[in-house]
Every structure is written in C-alpha cells, then in structure tokens.
Specification:
- The chain is mainly alpha-helical.
- It has one domain (6-108).
- 59% of the residues lie in helices and 4% in strands.
Length: 109
C-alpha cells in the first residue's frame, strides 16, 4: 500500500533531524476518518520491507507513538522482527540506531 507524499515527508523529517507522531503524520498526508492510522502503518510497513531489501535504515523509525515513550508503536518492532532485523532485545537501542543512521544520512546528502 502506497500513500502519496509519505516518502517525501519522511525524507524531509530526516533532513531536519525530526520525528513525528503517527497522528500528526496522518494529518500532514491528509488522511482522515476511521482507519487512518491503520492505512498509515500499512504503508510504513511496506516502506520497511523496501528499506530492508536495500539494507537501508528503516524510515518508519521517524514515526513515534504518542504514548510509547519516544519510540515507534509495537507494530514497528513486530515488523522489524518479521523482517529478521530485530531480535526483540533493547527496542530503544534498535530504534536509536536506525534514527541515527537516518539523521546521519540526511546530514551527508
């Protein structure tokens, strides 16, 4: 599932070394109504598959849960585990490594 503008929004966030909540990103993309977060997370998981296939940092790491302690929602970690990228140990470290790679890449570009 692709969402118009999603990759661009994530690239801009990385370039500014920022993160965003799922709700705020859904609003920026013009998603509304029931299921808007589910549509967003489905598209983020598709991007995670693309990133994993390319050996790239997971762009979905830029999106945080409002009540998840400055981490992405559980689905991010579940998908990363499914992709063979996350062993379940130390979610904050795993997330931080991807965020640092994204921000570092943005600084070099």
């Amino acid at each position: 599932m692709s969402l118009p503008g999603l990759a661009r929004e994530l690239a801009e966030l990385a370039a500014r070394r920022e993160t965003v909540t799922y709700g705020a990103l859904a609003a920026r993309l013009g998603l509304d109504g029931p299921g808007r977060i589910a549509r967003l997370t489905g598209a983020l998981e598709d991007l995670m598959e693309e990133d994993a296939a390319q050996g790239a940092a997971l762009r979905a790491a830029l999106v945080l849960g409002r009540a998840s302690g400055h981490l992405p929602a559980r689905g991010f970690f579940d998908k990363a585990r499914e992709l063979g990228l996350f062993d379940g140990d130390d979610p904050a470290r795993f997330h931080g490594a991807h965020l640092a790679a994204l921000h570092g890449r943005a600084l070099r570009d």
